[in-house]
Amino acid sequence: MRARNFCEQLPEGYREAYHINAKATKTGIILSVGSLIMALAVILPCLLTTDDILDESMVFNLIALLVCCAIIIAYIIAHELVHGAAYKLLTGRKLTFGITLTVAFCGVPDIYVSRRTALISLLAPVTVFSLLFSALAAGLYFVNHTYYAVIILVLGIHFGGCIGDLYLTLLLLFKYKSKHLLMRDTGPEQFIYYPSEEK
């Protein structure tokens, strides 16, 4: 089954259709701005719609701030591990992990994954952590408004941090739809390949 999920080498007749490098300055700026917009789109409506949450939570105490920082660091690592778990399960291949000032990443640089495998890996952290943080926020809303605000901040950072995953997902769903598509994911860079006869 794994053999259908990837190719060892790029098949003859394939051409590069798209390339994105998250470490490139221009791409990094675009992703950072988009990430901030997505984060604020989640955080502001959740915190601004309830007056008593603002009164209790906007000035975090030191413990809440430390908890928030610890969750964010753990989340960044866990996000990439979930990408890696999906890739490992579907391909069984060696993974690459890394972090720079602008991007944390996981990839399988030595193979070309199918469109299906790419979509599963791209959407795995979005799905897992959206459900987890939403459930935590819903529970904490009724128990502790300070930690509700902490989880809302983490949820916003999660959505902002998924911008690259969501961008590639949209490309694969709406622009590059061929069942023959292959993607090479080095971690910070993704290359999309098509058979030459397909546009």
Could you name the key traits of this structure?
199 residues; alpha+beta; 6-stranded antiparallel sheet; 6 strands; 59% helix; transmembrane; DUF3267 domain-containing protein; DUF3267; membrane
Structure description:
- The protein is α+β, with helices and mostly antiparallel strands and 199 residues long.
- The protein has one domain.
- It is built from six helices and six strands, in the order ββαααββαααββ.
- The protein has helices spanning 25-48, 51-57, 62-91, 115-141, 145-161, 163-175; strands at residues 6-7, 14-21, 96-99, 104-114, 182-185, 189-195.
Question: Topology of this protein?
Answer:
Elements lengths: L5 E2 L6 E8 L3 H24 L2 H7 L4 H30 L4 E4 L4 E11 H27 L3 H17 L1 H13 L6 E4 L3 E7 L4
Antiparallel strand pairs: 1-4, 2-6, 3-4, 4-5, 5-6
Helix pairs in contact: 1-5, 2-5, 3-4, 3-5, 4-5, 4-6
Rg over C-alpha atoms, rounded to the nearest angstrom? 19 Å
Q: Please tell me the overall pLDDT.
A: 89
Continuous helix count = 6
The counted number of beta strands is 6
Structural class: alpha+beta
Residue share in helices? 55-70%
Distance between the terminal alpha carbons, to the nearest Å?
28 Å
Q: Biggest sheet, open or closed, and with what strands and sense?
A: 6 strands, antiparallel
InterPro entries: DUF3267
Protein name: DUF3267 domain-containing protein
Organism: Candidatus Coproplasma stercoripullorum
Transmembrane segments: 28-47, 59-77, 97-113, 120-142, 148-174
